[in-house]
Each structure stands twice: as structure tokens, then as C-alpha cells.
Specification:
single chain; mainly alpha; 2 helices; 34% helix; 0% strand; GH; Glycosyl hydrolase family 13 catalytic domain-containing protein
Length: 41
């Protein structure tokens, strides 16, 4: 992982992703989850 964390790494990749034809990205919640499945922040 690049310095600055996952979200900053993704932010720096937006132009490359867009040029590749990617228009949407699903991001998991940035907080810790209370449920093991990760769907209950």
C-alpha cells in the first residue's frame, strides 16, 4: 500500500481508472465495523 493509506492511493489513481473506462467504484466504509460481515458501522 502506498504512503497515505488506501483512500489517498485511490484518489491518486482516479485519472488512470477513468482512462481505463471505469466509471464507478464501490468503497467499503472507512470506519471499523461492529459486525464481522462489515456491514454495520
Amino acid at each position: 500500500m502506498q504512503e497515505g493509506g488506501f483512500y489517498n492511493s485511490l484518489l491518486n489513481s482516479i485519472e488512470d481508472l477513468s482512462n481505463s473506462g471505469i466509471t464507478h467504484v464501490w468503497l467499503p466504509p472507512s470506519s471499523q465495523s461492529a459486525a464481522p460481515e462489515g456491514g454495520f458501522p
